[in-house]
Amino acid sequence: MGMMNGDNNSGAQAPLDPKIFSALLTPHRSLGPTGFLIFMACLGGLSFVSGIVFVSIGAWPVFGFFGLDVLLVYLAFRANYRSARAYEEVTVTASELTVRKVNHHGGVRQWTLNPLWVQLERIVHAEFGIERLFLVSHGRRLAIAGFLSPAEKASFARALTSALGEARRGPTRTPIGPR
Fold first, then answer.
1. Domain ranges across the chain
2. 6-33 residue pLDDT tens
3. What percent of the chain has pLDDT over 90?
4. 3-class secondary-structure state, position 28
5. How far apart are CA 55 and CA 43, in angstroms?
6. Phi and psi dihedrals of 171, rounded to 5?
7. Strand order in the sheet with 140-144
8. What is the pTM of this model?
9. Residue 140 neighbours by CB distance under 10 Å
10. 19-27+87-169 architecture in CATH?
11. Distances from the Cα of 107 to the Cαs of 17, 85, 166, in angstroms?
């Protein structure tokens, strides 16, 4: 969408604008590491007891399948936690809006846009709220905040819209200190 952000300043160090807005967006995981261990212990114990019951009635081959289902649930949760390493970072200054997306493998993609030209587009479902958010600039769209729930997307959209408005107004802060 915007230019890929590399070292484009050819050796000259540009002055850093103060951040107007900064957000780190991560996938929500309702089950933390302790909860995961408790869940797996309960599932393993239940499967073990059920397997013992089947062994006691002579259906010993079924015992292995109870262990297999625990292994499959464990692998599914590990894959889910691995995907949780992805995140998005959105930063707004008076002169730049930067979106940095890091996937679960650690691959980074970054876009730098001019906040004067960026619009925030919302796709809203009448019943569920905001389904998708896009940054639109010069006819191109960049999907953002896909990790968030509809309510979180609404809150993020309000904060980002406010930050973009402040960036468009320019620096209006008065210095703090003695006159």
1. 19-27+87-169, 33-83
2. 444 444 444 567 888 999 888 877 777 7
3. 36
4. coil
5. 18
6. -70, 115
7. 119-125, 129-137, 140-144
8. 0.64
9. 12
10. Roll (2.30)
11. 26, 11, 31
